[in-house]
Amino acid sequence: MPCGHSSLTRTYDASSWSLLNTTRMLSWSTWLPVAAGAVAVLADSSHKVTSLPNFVGSSVPFNHYAGQIELPSNGHKLFYWLVEASDVDPSTAPLALWLNGGPGCSSLTGLFTELGPFIVDSDLKVHLNPYSWSRKANIVFLESPSGVGFSRPILDASEYNDEETAARTVEFLKQFYAMYPAYNKRDFYITGESYAGIYIPFLVYNLVKTPVANINLKGFAIGNPYTDASVDGGAQLDYFYAHDLISIESYHNVMDACPPSMYYSCTRGLNCTADCVAAINVALNEADFDFVDPYNVYGDVCLLNNTEGERLTHLSRSFTSKLSTKSLKKATSTSSTTATAIEVGPCHDNYMTAYLKLQSVQDAVHVTGGHIEWDQCADINYSRSRSALQKYPTILNASLKALIYSGDTDSVVNFLGTQRWISREGLNLTVVDAWKGWFGPDKQQAGYTTEYQNLTFMTVKGAGHMVPATKPLQALYMFECFVFGQKACANFKYPVNTSQASGSPDSSSSSTTPKTSKSQLVVASWALLVVLLSVSL
Fold first, then answer.
1. Catalytic residue among 106, 107, 465, 507
2. Among this protein's residues, is 194 annotated catalytic?
3. Band of pLDDT at residue 157, cut at 50, 70 and 90
4. Most exposed of 310, 338, 345, 515 (fewest Cβ within 10 Å)?
């Protein structure tokens, strides 16, 4: 029932307008081979994945481990997938934990569609991802809380809240380190995106307040982080208007009918007026989110040719999930999924879902308790926190590296709201290095960055909500610079980004110093001419 007004028949539904479900899967760049790691981390061989079904190649060129770890406190079994570093000695490489959002969405999304080493094509064949963050780091992908993905059991609603999730994740880490003692005292980072903007501050806060032996926490990084419901939610309308998704008339109508506090309430199905609901519905009609991906407003949506063009599951779970879906009969998929290019598009998550439902895959990764109909997001009744800002004073004073980054084509948890809660509308952090551009390894400007006291904020130009999926080269470079430092990553070699190669003939080079382009020289020449003409006149 939209905002308590059953008479409103427009497709707006408050639960569908949530910022929190973020399962959008996006495009990958051209596939390139990945070098193999040479040394194995000492590990529990019972969870070693010895054969990955449908892998294209003789064998996976690095060690990886997967299975369910039982928590002593309650017997819950949390599923994880550990991938060892492929390009360096994994026995000395740092360890990073990755958490997707939701709440209740699987971190295997990150493994198979973003920063992980695997990509599944339309034939359910598994290829290597050259932009995997596991090149120089060991990455563990955790399905949390219990009930998500292969983690079991599904819990009662009262057990789903952020304090409980953080506590159980700490418990998982203790068991993980006991199973993999080679990681004791190793540099450890916590990373994630979306609702991990809540998960991670709660988790880091617990680890800071009550340190765990052998866990050497060094920092955390969160992409497009849902952090404060009011601030993040209030930035949506500004983004819609600024990116031509709605008219100026609708923008003003919503602003007039829905004060900021009421706008947030309406988007969460709380107290709001009929006028506010009506104004929002008009704006949503204009934005037409049946055909625009709100998590990547300049990207394509998935059109299927085998189900009368129904939208994919990930969009049915997005914040437009209960908006009406227009008929797309005879529509065809816009993705390209050849075995050589692996330039998969917005339908890619469907392939991943089908792959993880295969019994052979579940057997290979040691899933117990019978077959599981794996899905990207669990249908759980989760008690969401309105804000994680209260955790930041403690964690920012813990001598940790902190990175917050935003793909700038995400309208849902957008950079406007993130900047606001970092600055005047939230933490009010002090700027120590002003706003400026940053450059990727292809010498192209990749976005903008500001250094605050104890925190770095970065935007990623042209990236959606799932930054590693839409801008894999820039995301990889950003992650490695965060972990290893700017000087170190400046000397790393990176895969050639063929989509940008024409503008960057030496895109495999490590230098990030921008060169003066011909267009810049032309502009400069015209500027000089104008000055000379002005003087002569």
1. 465
2. yes
3. confident
4. 515
